[in-house]
Write a structure and sequence with these properties.
Elements (H helix, E strand, L loop, with lengths): L3 H9 L2 H6 L2 H15 L5 E3 L1 H9 L7 H16 L4 E4 L21 H13 L7 E3 H11 L5 H4 L10 H10 L11
Parallel strand pairs: 1-2
Antiparallel strand pairs: 2-3
Length: 181
Amino acid sequence: MLKWTDMACIVSSKPQLTAKATSSAVFFYLRSEMLIRGTSMPIGLRGHHLLCLLGYRGMGYSKEFCENMTTVYETLRQHPETQIRIVLGPDDLCAVYPKDQESHCENKTVYQRDAEIVSRLGLEVDMELSWSEICGQVADQVKPADIGHLCATCRWEPYGVCADGVRLIGEGRALPPVNNK
């Protein structure tokens, strides 16, 4: 198992990273290094982000948020055996929510959405499983038409991308790479 001291050495050996990176970028860089080295550190995700990631196409709340979301999305897309820990409340995606915007990460409606999605997928908080196992649960338990109900209060729902992601997973197809325009 890779130790935090080993990770510090990885970061210190990458001056371009330490000079410019946010803590989140460093965190996900370390996760990618751990994947390469065959070790693991689960990505913490709250319930609704399990579906948000299926529909992620590069849109988000800020440049930094999108960079973080893209890193997580591409990690999961390219390494579906990546371990996920289901968390209650703010997660590894919320960590980069813009400080200059009103945060919704602690809103009651967001917690309700999380609980409904975790329940629908037959999961529990603190459960650890691979991204491919989560996608299997989505394929079995969620249909594209369910997104309108499950995510009714989400500002991104009208774009239809999450329903499209659920459709792709249900058809056994791969999620597309993020198109960085």
